Amino acid sequence: MENFFIEDNFYHDIGDLLDYFDIENVEELEDDWALEAYEAVLEPIVIFTPENIRERVIYEDRYIEETYDVKESQEFKIEKILRENIDFDKINALMPKNYYGGKRFIITKQDLIEYVK
Fold first, then answer.
1. Number of Cβ atoms within 10 Å of the Cβ of 50
2. Alpha helices in 31-97 (DSSP H)
3. pTM of the model
4. At what angle do helices 50-58 and 74-85 cross, to 10 degrees?
5. C-alpha dihedral over 54, 58, 64, 67, to 10 degrees?
6. What residues does 42 pair with on adjacent strands?
7. How confident is the model over 14-58, as pLDDT tens digits?
8. Closest CA to 14 of 1, 28, 31, 26
9. Alpha-carbon dihedral sign for residues 16, 20, 25, 27
10. Which of 21, 84, 88, 102 is the S-S candidate for 39 at Cβ 3.0 to 4.6 Å?
11. What does the alpha-carbon distance between residue 22 and residue 39 come to, in Å, rounded to a whole number?
12. Beta strands 34-44 and 97-108: pairing type?
């Protein structure tokens, strides 16, 4: 079990957890000992897409003309310009990453026992 959160604390593995809670003898824990944890998922800080940049532009204080022809709309033109001129895959691949909470799981006494073996 690697990289997880318990509350707002990040742990690289069970060893970090044992150190943090100063647990020296796992066998002394109550049989029903358990902690709720969340997987730590490494994800980009932000993912840029033509759509989310277009949305940001629309919410600026500038007026966007409305039209009934979607392909003639300024929104469509903005998105098309972005798609044709920006390498979103490259930008997103280079984006710094952080750990964010993922799926919930339970760490039990048995997990700790297996780790220390």
1. 17
2. 50-58, 74-85, 88-94
3. 0.71
4. 140
5. 60
6. 99
7. 999 999 999 999 999 999 999 999 999 999 999 999 998 888 877
8. 1
9. negative
10. 102
11. 22
12. antiparallel
